[in-house]
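hi! just following up on the protien thing from before. the input was this:
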Amino acid sequence: MTDHIYKKIELVGSSSKGIEEAVKNALSRAKKTVRNMRWFEITETRCYLEEGKIAHWQVTLKVGFTLEG
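and the predicted 3d structure came back as:
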């Protein structure tokens, strides 16, 4: 295994369906412009309430990817 150098970016994904869907939305969108994503960690979760019920989830992720070259 070679040594890897990683860079981290922060993303916020959202979904009305749940936390997992919010994560998937963030990663699928990032995949369009960020190459070599290797891992992520969830750093925050939030919910938007409407009339006392969960209406929308927001999940903050730190995503690590390897630098090229």
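The helical segments are 19-30.
The chain has a mean pLDDT of 94.
cheers
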